[in-house]
């Protein structure tokens, strides 16, 4: 796992500043502490930081093919590189290393841009082909590895694994994108392909960008999740998960696994234990608050499989990490589980360089509570006309008492409101980090005015993907939308930045693209059966994981920020949110922020989620101001 950065002159061959390239590359030292390399000639510059995982001696980058001069910098792992080496050798290619990076070079020589369809893994790379004066940027199918780019006036393209690399360039405009701010307060993250800066973009998952000097940059989607009915049984799930896990055990460095005590991480540890000759090194994080602590369940799995288990407790005392989050994520990022994710990555890095995780199990097999409610509500919507639903449920939603504090099953007002809406509008309501009213009150008049003039609403992010899954069953539509938004925008960003900040590589077997394509396309009836989420996965894991872990209520990897904001972090959060930086930013209404604080700290309402978003936005503003020239 590594970090890359670079510059490309799309209009000519202006000299490249090697000192600037080195500064861009060195901002990514955490992603690659084991080595660095630079390649620069007129019109093109590529930089790399390396975390050595495979072929420790022979995988230095940038890597250049001596015959063609094609040069690549690459971040990620290609799991099928041994098989690809054999295939390419059959076409006459000769390899100098046993490194997956060289497979990309030879794959480009053999297939051009179509080499992407041959790559099985997680990757982002930048490739320079001097024969055609062409820059080629590519990102893996699901967006496991990040890649930002910006095209400046005059045709200079900047690119890098993290936004901080681009921000090193003095000519990058740092104007904040108002639409991205609205998206952040709606979703809790800035969805692809936007970034928080108007001038910078994320290369979207499954996309590539090709730019021949003197021409125009061409953006193309090279992969999409195809939705088509399929069949399967628990035995198929177990077999596919075993294969996906085994593929991810290739490493020339120590390897372990995260173990939360939930279904997904327990399933991965079980598969690893069955396929490894030595005890699996496992790592878990616990909390002093038992309502948030799953460490006892992690201990059950560790004991069953005889793992070399390490656990650590996270409490408010260790919450100094809040100040570091803005620098780690570069953009506002509102998932509070970034805290324990960082801590478990730091814990794992003490003993291993690679860790497997259970990420993706919920998206693939229908594990989120919102899927269950969405599928049930969608069935009701199909029985009643839109007009009747809007009148009946819209009225009930207005008169029924608000109960935001209660479990979902007791929040009839929310259910009535969603039943009055179309599927996509209702799903947006269920995935939103804040309510429409909260955003309307919170965002400043100026921001609301800009959004009104541009006729922009954050639901458009979700609606664009919803249309592409038109005709699929309601559960599959929701899964497709999550795989395009929530998964790359929240889950994968959280894990990538937290792990890379600790120079740790994380691999996710559930996100093997073959397993994902098959699992998403299973009938809804086997994923959610009798109200049981991930039913087919749980049946498949029944021989490997105890029933009290498989069938206990889903807990999630969350932190008790609500009580912390009223207790040990009370003064810290108030000082941050009522200071001049946030109030003078022009993005939020200071009186609305004060009211949210008073309600929460007075015990009248749980505003912890929106307060956390504000705290992360304030942290971004502070970091952005400090990093400007």
User: Would you state the CATH class of the largest domain?
Assistant: Alpha Beta
What is the CATH architecture assignment of the largest domain? 3-Layer(aba) Sandwich
Class based on secondary structure composition and strand pairing: alpha+beta
- Measured by DSSP, the beta-strand proportion falls in 5-15%
Main sheet summary: 6 strands, antiparallel
Low-confidence region ranges: 405-411
Helicity level, as a percent range?
A: 40-55%
Q: Tally of extended strands?
A: 17
Gyration radius, to the nearest Å?
24 Å
Q: Give the tally of structural domains.
A: 3
- For this structure, the CATH topology of the largest domain is Rossmann fold
Q: How many helical stretches?
A: 29
Overall pLDDT confidence: 90
CATH H-level homologous superfamily name of the largest domain: HUPs
The separation of the N and C termini measures 30 Å
> Which shape, going by the Cα principal axes?
globular
Output the strand order for the largest sheet.
2-3-1-9-8-10
